[in-house]
Amino acid sequence: MSTLAFCVPPRSLIRHSLVSIHQPRSDIWHEGIDNVILLAKGGRTAYSGPKDGIPKTCAEVGYPIPDDYNPADWILDLVSVDTRGAQEDFTRKRVNLVLEFWERREKVLAEEHKPDPEKTNTDEVVEVQGSSPIYIALPVIIDRMIRNLWRQQPGLSHVVAIFFVN
Questions:
Q1: How many CA atoms lie within 13 A of 126 on its CB side?
Q2: How far apart (Å, rounded) are the C-alpha atoms in residues 1 and 44?
Q3: Directed axis angle between helix 154-165 and helix 134-151, to 10°?
Q4: Where are the alpha helices (DSSP H) in the chain?
Q5: Cys-Cys link to 64, which of 1, 4, 59, 124 (CB 3.0-4.6 A)?
Q6: What is the Cα–Cα distance from 74 to 98, expressed in whole angstroms?
Q7: Cβ neighbours of residue 15 under 8 Å, at least 6 residues apart?
Q8: Which residues is 48 bridged to in the sheet?
Q9: Structure confidence at residue 165 (pLDDT)
Q10: Cα-Cα-Cα-Cα dihedral of 155, 156, 161, 166, to 10°?
């Protein structure tokens, strides 16, 4: 049994999962990852979306993933500056090109999905100023916490329920 199979339950049992992996092996990349957020230095987004969209995006930027190459290695190389000698200028330009491409793409998508002001009902929008006093906020927070714990593993929720009941 592989380590990945041991650590990750079958997809039918997973609701949501967030895993941070730096440069995964190709077998983990192909079998265990669905969505990717690729960040460059400074936390700037270079890609965000399904793993299957990465080859197309890399080709659109002008850096298609070579055959028999680990895609995780390739995309990390695309957003990394090589500070060794003559490569620095080239790699810095490449990183900036990838980041600018993603920013342009995000702006286009935001414009395409911009809500129509004529169809938006502003009468339902309520502006709230300030914060709720503790005697209102605390019971709401405790109620939400108990409900969330109750939906999770039975052992923990019963311990918390006993703690609050007794």
A1: 2
A2: 37
A3: 140
A4: 3-7, 26-32, 54-61, 71-78, 87-112, 134-151, 154-165
A5: 59
A6: 13
A7: none
A8: 37
A9: 46
A10: 90
Q: Please give the mean pLDDT across all residues of the chain.
A: 75
Return the structure tokens found at 110.
Answer: 């935001």
The set of long-range contacts for 115-123, using a CB threshold of 8 Å and a minimum separation of 24, is none
pTM of the predicted model as reported, rounded to 2 decimal places = 0.56
Interatomic CA distance for residues 166 and 161, integer angstroms: 9
Q: What phi and psi values does residue 35 have, to the nearest 5 degrees?
A: -125, 150
Q: Which two tokens stand for residue 18?
A: 């967030």
Query: Which tokens in the block code for residue 9?
Result: 């339950």
Sign of CA dihedral 24, 30, 35, 40: positive
Query: Residue 73 has what pLDDT?
Result: 87
Strand 45-50 with 35-39, pairing: antiparallel
Task: Give the pLDDT confidence of 34-53 residue by residue, as tens digits.
Answer: 888 888 888 888 888 888 89
Distances (CA, A) of 53 to 49, 71, 72, 76, 130: 7, 11, 13, 15, 43
